[in-house]
Amino acid sequence: MPIIEARSLTKRYGDITALDGLTLRVERGESFGFLGPNGAGKSTAINIFLDLVRRSSGSLSILGYDPEENPLEVRKRVGSLPEAGGLYPRDTPRDHLQFAVRMNEADDDIDELLGRVGIEDAADRTIGGLSKGMRQRLRLATALVGQPELLLLDEPLSGLDPAGARVFREVIRKERARGATVFFSSHIMDQVELICDRVGVMHGGRLLLTDDVHEFRREMDADPQLTLAVESPSEDLAERVSASERVTEATVDDGTLHLTCRSPADKSAVVRWLDESGMAIADLHSRGPSLEQAFLRAAEAER
Ligand SMILES: Nc1ncnc2c1ncn2[C@@H]1O[C@H](COP(=O)(O)OP(=O)(O)OP(=O)(O)O)[C@@H](O)[C@H]1O
Prior knowledge:
Elements: E1 4-13, E2 16-26, E3 31-35, H1 42-49, E4 57-62, H2 71-77, E5 78-80, H3 93-103, H4 110-116, H5 132-144, E6 150-153, H6 162-177, E7 181-186, H7 189-195, E8 198-203, E9 206-212, H8 213-220, E10 225-230, H9 237-242, E11 247-253, E12 256-261, H10 266-276, E13 281-286, H11 291-302
Parallel strand pairs: 3-7, 3-8, 5-6, 6-7
Antiparallel strand pairs: 1-2, 1-4, 8-9, 10-12, 10-13, 11-12
This protein binds adenosine-5'-triphosphate.
């Protein structure tokens, strides 16, 4: 049974077609990145998956349930980010998570949840006084309550700095290791390729393509160079990295690792390898077309 199965899913608002015939399957254990520029229809699709918005036509199954017919069954099994308005400024993160745990009839340890997203020190401060990134981390912790089978996350990286993005990747890695399926929307290709197996590109309400993430990068990208900001690089870093068969050259210069990969397609695998081997990547730049250009190319190829 697929975890998400949408067929010809369409949403109209008067004359606007926010979602135009979305057909998509996501299998158990996958991590799927839902990409697209502003207004592409990503939030509309996710909100329909969560039964926050009703579809105009088409069919949908989330974990075997139609969210319109069985919203509670879906909600019990799915972790999502609460709306910004769902965080009460006078509550503390601890209050908020205690409430979420009670609502889900779950038994998560609040301190452990706060620790996983790195805001344990802010557990008893008021949410109104937290930074945007800290609030986003709290929203992510909320999505984890009850060990959901599926994480459906709309722009989870929004407002996160490089350290926050790293926390997010770590959380996703652990959730997948536990067997969860992950589906999230983003504009940030460089982050998406660290986390996803597959991407779908939305434009103008339509799903233009779905592809393996490395294939997608290869098709969109012609430059094999990468630049990474590294926290406390070891002395032999350049040597270690250039020993990889995917790398032809590596130099380190004042905390910055410059890499030339054997081919553009190797870039995402190399970054993933470095991240998983424990290297503290503070930031990364990959030359090549912007995601916006990639969307436009995909849209043109579609015509
Ligand atoms: N409640 C609504 N009423 C009217 N139009 C809407 C409504 N919600 C969304 N739309 C329209 O549907 C289209 C798709 O919007 P949606 O929010 O799904 O895009 P998105 O890909 O999530 O964009 P973003 O990255 O900016 O969040 C847009 O043209 C938007 O203006």
